[in-house]
Amino acid sequence: MGKQGLGKQRQNKPRQSKPGVKPEAKLKTLDRTLSRAGLGSRTEARSWIGAGRVAVNGKKIQTPDFWVDQERDRVTFDGRPLVARRKTYLLLYKPKGYLTTYKDPEGRPTVYDLIPDVEEWVFPVGRLDQDTSGLLIMTNDTALGDFITNPESKVAKTYLVKSSTLLTDDQLDHLRRGIELSDGSTSPALVERVRDSGRYTHFEITITEGRNRQVRRMVEALGAKVLKLVRVSIGSIAIAGLEIGKRRELTPEEVSGLFGRAQASRGRG
Questions:
Q1: Which residue in 54, 107, 115, 145 is deepest, having the highest Cβ count within 10 Å?
Q2: What CATH number has the domain bearing residue 97?
Q3: Tell me, what CATH number does 48's domain have?
Q4: Cα angle, residue 191 at apex, residues 188 and 192 outer, rounded to 5°
Q5: Would you please indicate which residues are annotated as catalytic (active-site) residues?
Q6: At 261, is the pLDDT very low, low, confident or very high (cuts 50, 70, 90)?
Q7: What is the model's pTM?
C-alpha cells in the first residue's frame, strides 16, 4: 500500500497495533504534528490546516485530525518540508495580573508580552491563574510539557501561600492528609508553616497534581482564602534569584534533570 493509501486509511482513526504491541507513538494527528515541530500552538495549526497551507505526501489536507506517520509521511507547510525547530527551555517569573495564554479577547496582558523577542514559538507548561505569580516553564518541547503536566508523572510543584486567617496545626495537617474537593480527594501534600504574621499564616505547600485552582480550593475548603500565591519550584527547578517579570534559559543540567525524570517514568511504565 502506498503512502497516499495509508493516509486515507488513517484519516478517521489510527491504525490498529498488533496484539501485545503498544500503540505506535509515531502516529500523531496533523495539528499535533505541526505543534510538536515547534511551529505554533495546536489552535494555530488547525487554522493553517483549514486554510490549506499543509500537505501530506503531496496532497493538501484540511482535516486537523488526519493521522500522520512521522517516520514515513512527508508533511509540508507552505510547500516546505516540516523541520523540527530548535528546542527552547525558558524559566519565566510570571507577575500577578498576567494571563497564561497567547491572546486575550479583552486585551489583558499575557505572559507573551514578557517575551516579545523570543523567536521560537513556546508554550507555558501548565497554567498559573491571573492572580498567581511565580515560576512558569515555557518551551516548544511538547513531550516534556506533557510529562510535567501529566498527574501520573507526580512532578512536584511547590507554592508559597498567604492565607486570610491564622491556620491551626490541625488545618495544616488536613492539607497534608488530603482535602475532599468537588472533583475528588487530593493526594497527600507536603506542608510547612513558614510564619504567622498578625492575622495571617504563611506556609509552603508541595503538590504533585495539577487541578484547576487546586491550592486555592484546598485552602477555601478550610474556611479561609488565599491572599497571595507564588509558585517557587517545579521538580528541581527553582525560581530563586530571578527577578519578577524576567526570564532565563534553563541550564543543560536542569533540562537533563527533567528529561531524566521523564525517561525514568517511561522505564517504570
A1: 54
A2: 3.30.2350.10
A3: 3.10.290.10
A4: 165
A5: 129
A6: low
A7: 0.76
